[in-house]
Amino acid sequence: MSEIFIAKKTINSSVLKGSFVSKAPSNIALVKYWGKKDIQIPTNPSLSFTLNNCFTKTELFFEKKETENDSLDFKIYLDGELKEDFRPKIELFLTRTKKYIPFIKDYIFEIHTHNSFPHSSGIASSASGMAALSVCLMKLEKQINSDISDKYFREKSSFLARIGSGSAARSTHGRVVVWGETQDIEGSSDVYGVKFPYKIHSNFENYQDIVLLVDRGEKQVSSTVGHQLMNGHPYAEIRFVQAKENILKLKEILISGDLKKFVKLVELEALTLHSMMMTSSPYFILMKPNTLQIIEKIWEFRRSTGSDLCFTLDAGANVHLLFPEKEKDVILRFVESDLKVFCDSGKYISDFIGEGCIDKV
Ligand code: DP6
Questions:
Q1: Interval between CA 305 and ligand 1 midpoint (Å)
Q2: Is residue 10 over pLDDT 70?
Q3: Mean pLDDT of 81-108
C-alpha cells in the first residue's frame, strides 16, 4: 500500500530555488500509541486531539544541486542556531523517506525551525517537528508535480511524518485524528493518520488542554526505547486488544458527548500507558511525586464540584488537564490556587483543540 506514495519521476525540473513554510501543531493522545513494528507501524490504533498553541514552524529552503549525486545535503537550525545534535534524526528521516520523495537528493536544503513551547518543557517536539517538515517537503513535491491531488497531499504528508515519528502522523490534521487501522473507524490506516470521520458532539467544541509542566528535564526513557519494551511484554497482547476496544468506546463518546464516560476512559488510558512502563523489563516510573499530587487534587476537585475535568499523561511527568470550554474560568482559578505549586517554576501552558496545518489544502 505504501507504494502508492512513491513520487513520480521529476516532471518539472525547472524548480531551482525557493522556500516553503509550514506550521504544525503538537497533539495529545487520548488512546495511546505504545508499541510498534518496523518503521512506526503501530501495534494498536490511537486517537488524539490536535493542539493549537503548541506548534513547530519550519521553513525549508531549497536550491538545486549543480551536479547530480546521491547524497543528502542539508543543514538544520533551531531559532537561527545550527543544531548538529538534530542531524542524526533528520538524516535517518530523509534516508527512510528518500524512496518516496527521491527528488530530495537533487537539492541542497536548509531547515529552519522554531517551537512555540520552550525546548526544556518536557513537551516532545518530534510530532510537530516531523509534521511541519513533511508538509514542507510535500509542498516541494507539489511544485515539482502539480498533478497530485489534495487527498494524496494530505495522506502522504501524514505518511512521511509517521516515518519520522509515529505520533507525528497525527499532527498534520486538525481537531481529532485517528492513526492505526481499525474496522471501527472508516478509512483508518496503519501508514497515515486520518481526521475522525464522524460528527463530534458540541461538548467537545474548543476542548481545553492545560499542560502542567511538572518536570522539564530530559526524559528518562525515550519513546523509541519505550515502544521496544512492548516486544515480549507480558501484558502486551491484552493491552493492544484493550486499546482497540477503547477506540470504539471513545468514538461513541465523541459522538454522544458523554463527558462522564470520557473522563473515565481518558484517565484509564493514561494510567494504563504508565502501568505498561512500570511492568516492562527494565521497568520505569516516569511520574513524579508532584504528578500524583496533581492527580489526587483533580479527583478531589471532581468529587467536590461535579466538574468534568480529567487528566492525561504522555511518556513523562507532565500532566495534561482536559476540560470543556465552559469550565475554563473555574479551572484556571483552580490551577492558580491548587496546582501551579506542583509545576516546575510554577509553569504551565494553556492550549485547546486546534486545526491542523493541511486542513485547507
Ligand atoms: C506516549 O511518537 O514519540 O506519546 O514513533 O518512536 O517516534 P516514535 O514514538 P513517539 O511515541 C509517542 C508515545 C506517546 C503516546 C502517543 O502519543 O500516542
A1: 33
A2: no
A3: 97
Q: In this structure, are 41 and 173 located in the same domain?
A: yes
Residue-number span of the structural domain to which 165 is assigned: 2-195
Is it true that the peptide bond before 197 is cis, omega within 30 degrees of 0? no
CA distance 205 to 218: 33
- Report which of 228, 200, 189 is spatially closest to residue 45, judged by C-alpha positions: 189
Q: Which amino acid is at 13?
A: S
Mean pLDDT score across all residues of the chain = 95
What's 316's domain CATH number? Answer: 3.30.70.890
* Ligand 1 proximity of 223 Cβ (cutoff 6 Å): yes
Of 33, 98, 35, nearest to 70 (Cα)? 98
Distance 222 CA to ligand 1 centre (A): 9
3-state SS assignment for residue 177:
strand
Q: Does pTM top 0.90 for this prediction?
A: yes
Residue 177 has pLDDT above 70, yes or no: yes
Q: Whose CA is nearest to atom 5 of ligand 1?
A: 166
Residue 38 sits in a domain whose CATH number is: 3.30.230.10
Q: What is the pLDDT of residue 359?
A: 55
Are β-strands 73-78 and 107-115 bridged in parallel, bridged antiparallel, or unpaired?
A: parallel
Digit-coded pLDDT (tens) for 149-160: 999 999 999 999
Distance 293 CA to ligand 1 centre (A): 25
Total structural domains in the chain? Answer: 2
Q: Are residues 189 and 248 in the same domain?
A: no
Domain boundary among 131, 165, 195: 195
95 and 231 fall within a common domain? no
Cα 183 to Cα 203: distance, rounded to the nearest angstrom: 25
**Which residue, among 53, 46, 78, 272, has the nearest Cα to 168 in the 3D structure?**
46
